[in-house]
Amino acid sequence: MAEVNCFWHAPVWRRLEAYLSQDRLPHALLLQGPAGIGKRRLALTLARRILCEDGRACGRCPACRLLAGGNHPDLLTLAPEPGRPLTVDRIRELIETLTLTPQYGRGRVVVLEAADRMNPAAANAFLKTLEEPAPDTVILLLCEQVSRLPATIVSRCQRLPLIPPPRQEAEKWLVAQGFPAPQAGLALALNGGAPLAAKAWLEGDEPERRRRFLETLEALLSGRRDPVVLAGEWQTEVPERLSVWLLTVVADLVRLGHGAGQGLVNVDCRERLQDWAEKLDLNQVFGVWERLLSWRRELQSPLNQTLVLESLFLEIHRLRP
Ligand SMILES: [Zn+2]
To answer: Which residues lie near ion ligand 1 (Cβ < 5 Å)?
Structure first.
């Protein structure tokens, strides 16, 4: 992948540069921030600086070449399977590897992705490596929600929060990469302002799928289609996506229903949403919103998506004036 200049990393990177130049990089860093803010990218950039033979991520030395090929033995990356917790077995494997001496002379870097998805046993085991750090090892923990990590782990890390840049600057950054401004704005609004998430959104098939989903909602609210049949059509969609689409639409309806157009997410269909908001009973819309929130909380555990969708679609169908 071509190197992308993540300008919003600059403040954190300045701190890291200071640590590196003074040779006092903490042994554990916690990179926290929303999905698509570039935590992994920043961690790997730092790993290149640490492991490069001349410490500058030169791109030419044997270490840099191994890193570019994704097989430097002193860079250990660990990530849970999609939708699964990180288990203690994987952490034990890591701990065992840390007892060995690094193979090259530049120490070792551990990148622990989605650290907030460690299960309690894994977190417990991992805590020991933080309490008794292996020599010449830098541990980079990546997480979206610090509140899901045990305080004992957080307190042993130097925290580096990554914050989305101002919306306008992020939009400019996307436009400079060839995306039209209205779509860039929409992508940012739908992705919490995280530029890389917005970019991936624009490059993938999600805009088209979301457009079709909005048509589904239209069909439900106008009573043109059967909710159970429609639920069947969407049963294989990624639940996370569905819940985001629905939540943002319902939140926009509540906003517009209260006469507040500020902070609207689905800016591309403002008129349609305004029309719905005027016709629907806001109390009932609020009921759907609460059900969506409870569905989202349960997304990590296996659910019968068809059943959940059927009941949600039926409820939306019943919103019809
Ligand atoms: Zn190098």
So the answer is: 52, 58, 61, 64
